[in-house]
Design brief:
Rossmann fold; mainly alpha; two-stranded parallel sheet; 7 helices; single chain; 3-stranded parallel β-sheet; globular
Length: 125
């Protein structure tokens, strides 16, 4: 399963339901974009190290961008940015899930719902 950035933020805020959801999954993946968003949100070095420890502790696999992911994300923007407001970051995360044959777990369903071939798992905090 590919976890959206919001799921990891819920865990960092102490949401036990989000932590349990992640713990139950054997395959835990995040896109490199989620990785960067998490680190970018750190306000100091200690917090930065805490995020890296968290990702190691849960054994998250960071999936890199590829040419296919970039191409699919661009198609998603062409199709869904005007009618649904899809943003570039969300398009990249959705494309990462689709290209890797993974379900995307998110609580931001409205960002992803228009993408028909994307498999979603909705998390309700």
């Amino acid at each position: 399963m590919l976890f959206d950035t919001d799921i990891l933020i819920w865990i960092q805020r102490g949401n036990l339901r989000a932590a349990t959801l992640v713990e139950r999954e054997e395959e835990r993946c995040i896109s490199v974009l989620t990785y960067m968003e998490l680190l970018q949100g750190a306000k100091e070095k200690r917090q930065h190290e805490h995020i890296l420890d968290f990702l190691r502790e849960y054994s998250f696999r960071v999936l890199p961008l590829s040419e296919n992911i970039g191409h699919r994300a661009a198609i998603y923007i062409e199709e869904y940015s005007l009618p649904h407001g899809l943003r570039a970051g969300d398009a990249m995360i959705a494309a990462t899930a689709t290209e890797n044959g993974l379900t995307l777990c998110t609580s931001n369903v409205r960002h992803y719902r228009p993408i028909k071939e994307l498999k979603l798992r909705v998390f309700k905090p």
